Structure formats: structure tokens, C-alpha cells
Predict the structure.
Amino acid sequence: MTNDYLLCKKIMKKNGIPVVEIRNLNHFFGEGNLRKQILFEINLTLKSGEVVIMKGPSGSGKTTLLTLMGGLRASQSGSMRVFGEELVGAKQQQLIKVRRNIGYIFQAHNLLECLTARQNVQMSIELQNGISPTEAKAKSLQMLAAVGLEDRVNYYPQKLSGGQKQRVAIARALVSHPRMVLADEPTAALDSKSGRDVVELMQKLAKEQGCTILIVTHDNRILDVADRIVELEDGRLREGSLVDSFIGR
């Protein structure tokens, strides 16, 4: 067998590994008479290396589902397994363990205004064990160069454009080589070109690192970056149209 065949077989095997397995998940907000169900019987599997887009109207529960997947809040009922860890009823320490393997990209980018672009990215690596400050700095500079910001490493966020801020957020999310990236409306504040550049960059870098990407978005202009589309409406999930993974790439 050729090396190319063996490599292809290895990639296919890797892509079959579930990163997220959700079964019959329900979620509620509030207590007593104010208790309201937000998510209903969610079933979803995300595999290694997939780019999945989640669509749906405002208030449908997309961000809630994303935060549950990311271990930012504890799941309540059903089953939510992330990297093999059951998150329904999970203790805080289990949630922290899962979060260490996830890169987050938010609509508002959430950069610290008092830190430079390089420092914002470096802070993410320094949360990892066994990384020296020198190595963390070098990795930060390398990742900022990869997102096209090698000439902006010492700029503070207020001196960066919206697209540049989002590039810093992508660099921060990917610099520690996470197993999964969760992106909540990453193009909402960007113009058409900047939004497209940001998503293609996220896709390229994350694919090179072999991680799974879940993008929550209303932006129909970026649907072709997805391997798969799911739709959430009124707290209920359904599979959307499969997307040819080679379109627009």
C-alpha cells in the first residue's frame, strides 16, 4: 500500500471518532412556576475534523446548546459526552478539564483592552501546564503571523479593526491546539469580505490542527465552509442539507 493510501485511511479513521455525543438532552431555565424548557430531546454527534454550522432564529437555544457543549454550564438531563466525559450532572472539576481542550470564539471577541494582541493570545497558552513564558511568547507570535497580524502584535485592541480583533480571537482560540473550536456568531459584526476571510482562516487553521469546529451563525454567506448543517428552532434540532465539503474551497 502507498503512503498516500495509508495517510488517507488514517485520516478517515480519525474523522470517525465522536468528539461530542448528545442523546435526549433537555435543558431548563428558572425554578418553580418560572421554569421554562429551552432545549428539547437534542440528539447530535460531532466527529473529529468536522466543520458543522448551526443555524436557527434568535431565541431558539443555539447559544445555550453551545455553552453546554463547551462546559460553560452543567447539563441537566439526558446525556452530553464531550471527549468521552459525561457532562450531565458533572462536577466543576470535570467541566474545567473539558474546557481546557476547547477554543472559544465569541461575537464580541472578548479581548482584554489592557493587553496587546500578542499578550491576549499568550495568556491563553499560559493557562496550559508545562509551557514556559519564552515558549508561550514564541507560539503567540507564530499564530498571529499565521492569521496575518505579524505587524500588529504590539497593538492594543482599540487600535485594531473589527476584522483584526476577530483574527486575534481566532489566534487565541487555536494557539493551544484545542480538540474543538466553538464559535458563536463570529462574523456578526464584520462586513462581507472580513467575515468571509475570518471564517476561511478559522477553517484552514483548525483543519490543519485536526480539530472539530462548530459555528453558530445567521450568516448565510458562509454556509459553504461546512461539512454539515444542523438547524435549531424552538429548542428542537434537525439536520439541514448536507454541504459538499469542496464547494468554495
In short: The chain has a mean pLDDT of 85.
